[in-house]
Amino acid sequence: MIKLDIVNRVADRTGVAKMKAEQAVDALFRSMKEALARGERIELRGFGVFVVKPRKRGVGRNPRTGEEVAIPSGKTIRFKPGKELQAHGFEADDGAHDEHEEGGAHSNDHAESDTHAGADTRPPDTKF
Length: 128
Description:
Structural class: alpha+beta
Oligomer: single chain
Radius of gyration: 17 Å
CATH architecture of the largest domain: Irregular
Strand order of the largest sheet: 1-2-5
């Protein structure tokens, strides 16, 4: 699903014009981005919680060359699904990466897993 799909569903379900629905969706996402940029927690009852967590610095590898690359400390966004989403089979992320426990990724690869594993939990257009 992309933002346009959300705009279309809002317009269809509320009966408002698509232009107004797009403005509402944009305002919502803008507010969420601003709150996350300030490090605030976003709680949407029945849906879930977005939190900003510090990301440790470390060493990763360039997948093409194998060269070690320094990864600076920063921020990452985590999403914990609410009870209603959990009832549909979505599990809460306890902060640990399952792939580490199953031997799927090595500690040197954590930068790649952090940037891609969290990508689907970020609000659209969020840039940190």
